[in-house]
Write a structure and sequence with these properties.
five-stranded antiparallel β-sheet, alpha+beta, about 150 residues, single chain, OB fold (Dihydrolipoamide Acetyltransferase, E2P)
Amino acid sequence: MNLKLTQIKDLPRIEVEIRYPEMNKTVQQLIRRIESVNHAIYGNDNGRQYRIPYEDIFYIESVDKKTFIYTEKQVFRSDMRLYQLLDDLASFEFVQVSKSCILNINVLESIQTLANSRIEVTLQNGERLNVSRTYIPQIKKALSNEA
């Protein structure tokens, strides 16, 4: 893949053009990543509302009917339900890994098989999450789309 960057001072906004010989997983992945730059979720922390870009989200977890958005170093509270967030995030490389957790596939560092047919994933910030048996096919599918 060749990357060509051109600065045009009087261009009103960023313009991205992808040239490819055939549509494949790599091109689709590039499109999803570029599109995710303009998308964000709003979360609360200590009474203040913040815009959280999709690319900054590591995972989202629901605990006691409360939804939390985890970034590399911060945790935010969301008023949205997990299923609502999954609907918004599913096309941007997020995958459900348990009944109460959605993971950003792009922050995955490693995967380890555990007993009882479960998987443990380690994220780039060192956090570890368990993938329950029910959701293993979904994470495998998401990882095969990465290749």
